[in-house]
Design goal:
With 195 residues, the protein is α+β, with helices and mostly antiparallel strands. The chain has a single domain, classed as Beta Barrel (Lipocalin), CATH 2.40.128. It is 22% helix and 39% strand. The chain contains three helices and ten strands, in the order H-H-E-E-E-E-E-E-E-H-E-E-E. The chain has helices spanning 2-22, 27-41, 144-149, and strands at residues 46-55, 69-73, 82-89, 92-102, 105-112, 125-128, 137-141, 156-163, 168-175, 178-186. Strands 6-5-4-3-2-1-10-9-8-7 form a ten-stranded antiparallel beta sheet. It is globular.
Length: 195
């Protein structure tokens, strides 16, 4: 009886296991994600100003409503497999986007720190690039650790776009597939990273 039960449970779990395998990027997706990351790396060594281009977060008083935005691509924070991008909101320097190529593809994480360098309680949330991306845009639905930490983030999907022909880097947040936030950075006027 126990052997039959084990066999039944194993057979029932196979579709779940097969479903998990399809979430892994194929070789072409990984190559596309690598090209995407290398396009951003070309801008390392400079800082860039940006602006909030769209926001529906909060009730008109959100910290991202109308701040001075700066994105820093310090050469020391750019490696072949990872780019750490500090994202300044006025004088608040607590945020860093981390784009990294890992065994399972491209991952986006949000690193939030206090001025002394200690982590915020709500930290390192993000997701893996899905199959929709291309060499100029990648999309990151909330991953399992992000959802486990805060279930309300199950509706989150972030995107990062690089548009060299328009000199733009674009970061967006979608909630239930609806745009909720977008920041656009001007890549045409780089300035030193020691700001």
């Amino acid at each position: 009886m126990m052997k039959k039960l084990t066999t039944i449970l194993l057979l029932l779990s196979l579709p779940i296991l097969w479903g998990c395998e399809t979430d892994q990027p194929d070789e072409q997706q990984v190559e596309t994600q690598s090209v995407f990351l290398s396009q951003i790396q070309e801008y390392c060594g400079h800082a860039y100003e940006g602006e909030t281009a769209f926001i529906t977060l909060g009730d008109g008083d959100h910290v991202l409503q109308d701040p001075e935005l700066v994105m820093v691509l310090d050469e020391r924070a750019c490696s072949e497999d990872e780019i750490r991008i500090p994202f300044y909101v006025d004088d608040d320097r607590s945020r860093t986007w981390i784009l990294s190529m890992r065994e399972h593809g491209l991952h986006l994480a949000h690193d939030h720190r206090y001025p002394d360098g200690t982590e915020h309680d709500d930290n390192m949330y993000g997701g893996w690039a899905d199959a929709e991306g291309d060499e100029t845009a990648q999309y990151f639905p909330a991953d399992e650790p992000t959802i486990a930490d805060r279930a309300s983030r199950s509706i989150n999907r972030w995107s990062v776009k690089i548009k060299p022909e328009e000199n733009q880097y674009i970061y967006s947040l979608y909630l239930s597939e609806e745009l909720a936030y977008r920041a656009v950075f001007d890549l045409s006027e780089p300035y030193p990273t020691d700001i």
